[in-house]
Write a structure and sequence with these properties.
Elements (H helix, E strand, L loop, with lengths): L5 E2 L5 H10 L4 H12 L14 H10 E2 L4 E7 L5 E6 L5 E9 L2 E5 L3 E2 L17 E2 L2 H9 L9 E4 L9 H12 L11 E5 L3 H10 L3 E5 L5 H7 L8 H9 L9 E7 L7 H10 L5 E7 L13 H13 L3 E4 L13 H20 L10
Helix pairs in contact: 1-2, 4-5, 9-10
Length: about 375
């Protein structure tokens, strides 16, 4: 009988130490192994030179250290690189490398598909399949070829991070650990549509910066484009955020996607400033990245800049994040959907090309 080998990746250091001690090995072996996997990025046990030969042999007999693979890679003229990542079961997610002055940001996915069904998001039009495992989240950093070291990580790819909270939290441990990926909490941002039960837990864990997708200044606006607002209405979300015990000088980053004719008026800007009053906040404006899923339009540039000016005049730190990688469908979910559409079209063509089965002979 062949025993299936255990995946060694995706365990936080305390869990890895516990696993090694249970197998009769000293805890320091786990620390060595953790460093090889996440700092030195070595997956082959035979190459872990400071481990004893007998320990390496035991690891090879009992464990595997898999990697995610690249299904597609698209390079933008602005330096952005979008990866379609193939998981071991054949499912695919997206990761995006975004270079800017002074930093290189990696946007990671946390789920295959998404349950939130936001009307503006290509992922929202795809069937939710499953959560990513911890190692699959971490491996988006460790197994993809970047032209420069990643300095920042944002959880803003496919899926809702707080809907996969435990795996995300463990991935954050590995990203941050000094023996792991060594990316500090000030360089990590986790974005949520506003799942209230997990917000305080995340703030209490103090493992990264919090971003909340707002995208509307009234319940009517927000429910139209974000169905989750029915469960966690705007007033409840904002009240919860006012009561948060924010550590130090930490502020919530409010992501505000401006859509032409829906949430982009001067009135919206003044109302946004009012509803955020009393919450340590910064505002990140984005202009809608048009796609064929829904008939939303990008607002004129001057309207976005006017909105920003109003927010600045109200005293809020307000940035305008211009879209990157528009020439390679870098908005969340677009590449995955295009790939799935191509695969479905090919399957239909292959099925049509198959000769029809002969009709049964008449008696």
């Amino acid at each position: 009988m062949v025993t299936q080998k255990e995946n060694i990746k995706g365990l936080s250091l305390p869990r890895l130490e516990k696993r090694m001690v249970e197998a009769g090995h000293p805890p320091y072996r786990a620390r060595q192994l953790f460093q090889w996997l996440y700092q030195k990025n070595v997956n082959n046990f035979d190459e872990m030179s400071d481990l004893s030969k007998s320990f390496r042999s035991w690891l090879s007999e009992n464990f595997v250290a898999p990697r995610v693979e690249i299904a597609e890679q698209h390079d933008s003229d602005d330096g952005t690189i979008k990866f379609l990542v193939r998981l071991q079961d054949g499912e695919k997610v997206e990761s995006v490398f975004i270079p800017t002055e002074g930093r290189n940001t990696l946007c990671v996915s946390t789920q295959v598909g998404c349950k939130m069904a936001c009307a503006f998001c290509a992922t929202g039009y795809q069937k939710f399949t499953r959560d990513l495992k911890t190692w699959e989240i971490v491996d988006q950093l460790k197994s993809l070829p970047f032209p420069a070291p990643v300095t920042n990580i944002v959880f803003m790819g496919m899926g809702e991070p707080f809907d996969n909270y435990e795996n995300v939290l463990e991935a954050l441990e590995i990203f941050r650990h000094p023996m792991g990926c060594q990316i500090g909490k000030r360089h990590i941002t986790v974005s949520t549509v506003g799942l209230i039960p997990q917000i305080q837990a995340f703030v209490d864990a103090d493992v990264g910066k919090l971003a909340i997708s707002l995208h509307g200044t009234t319940d009517e606006q927000r429910t139209r484009i974000m169905p989750m607002n029915k469960k966690y209405p705007l007033a409840e979300l904002l009240d919860n955020c006012r009561k948060l015990n924010m550590p130090g000088r930490l502020r919530i980053t409010w992501e505000y996607l401006m859509i032409d004719g829906i949430n982009d008026t001067e009135e919206d800007a003044h109302r946004l400033a009012e509803i955020l009053r009393g919450i340590p906040s910064k505002v990140n404006l984005l202009a809608y990245n048009e796609n064929h899923f829904v008939d939303f339009k990008r607002p004129p540039e001057e309207r976005v800049l006017k909105f920003q000016r109003i927010m600045l005049d109200h005293g809020y730190t307000t940035t305008y994040r211009r879209s990157r990688g528009r020439d390679i469908a870098a908005a969340c979910g677009q590449l995955h959907h295009a790939s799935a559409t191509r695969a479905a079209r090919l399957a239909r063509m292959q099925a049509a090309a198959q000769p029809s089965a002969p009709a049964p002979a008449q008696a």
